[in-house]
Amino acid sequence: MLRMTLSRSTLVQQVISALSEQIRVGEWPVGTKIPTEPRLVEMLGVGRNTVREAVKALTHAGVLEGVQGSGTYVRSTDELTGVVARKFGTADPEHTIEVRRALEVEAARLAALRRTPEDLDRLDAALVARDAAWETGDLEVFVEADADLHVAVVGAAHNPMLAELYASVGAAIRASVAVAVGPAMRAGTHIDHGRLVAAIRDRDADRAAHEAGKFLEAPVRE
Known about the structure:
Elements: H1 11-24, H2 37-44, H3 48-60, E1 64-67, E2 71-74, H4 79-90, H5 93-114, H6 117-136, H7 139-156, H8 160-168, H9 170-181, H10 194-201, H11 205-214
Antiparallel strand pairs: 1-2
Helix pairs in contact: 1-3, 4-9, 5-7, 5-10, 5-11, 6-7, 6-10, 7-9, 10-11
InterPro entries: GntR_C, TF_FadR/GntR_C, Tscrpt_reg_HTH_GntR, WH-like_DNA-bd_sf, WH_DNA-bd_sf
Protein name: Transcriptional regulator, GntR family
Pfam families: FCD, GntR
C-alpha cells in the first residue's frame, strides 16, 4: 500500500518519488504494466490530476511508456537509464563508442589496480561463461554473457559511481553489441577477452586499458 500524507507544495514530486521507488525495488518490473490511474489514486490518496502529472513526468523521462488501448508500462528502472537509452538509440555510432570507451577503458585500468582475489574469481567465471555462450551460437545468450564479463570488470574497479553509471547504459550497450556481432555470429566477429582478464590479474593498468580500448575502436569516417 502506497497511501501517504503529501504536502501540497511537493505533491507531484512526492508521487513521482513514490512511483519511482516501486519500480526501483522491483514491485513493478521492467516490461510490466503499472496499476491503472484510478488504482493509483486509491493507493496514493491523491487526485487524478496529480497522478496524471507524475506519470507524465516519468513517461517524459523514459521510465514509463503509455501504450494506447493497453495501459502504461515500465521501460526502465530510473530516469538516468531511460534518458541514456533514448540517447544511445539515436546517437551517432561513433559517439556511442566514444562514450563506451570513456567508461570501459577507465574501468579496466582501475580494475587492474584494485582487483581482489574475489574479483578475479568472478572475472574467470564470467570469461568461461562468455566463451561457452559463444559456442552455443545463440546471440542473445552471448550478449548477456558478454555483458556479465564487462560488469565484472567494472565491479573490480570498486568505484560505486562508475558502476551505477555503467549499469544505466547496460541495456543500450547490449543492444549495440548485438548489432556489432550480428545474428550469424561469424568467427571473425568474435573478440577474445582473455588478454583483458590476464592484464587485470597481472595488475598491469596500462595493458588492461589498452586491451579494453581495442574492443572499442571507433569507426573511421570516409
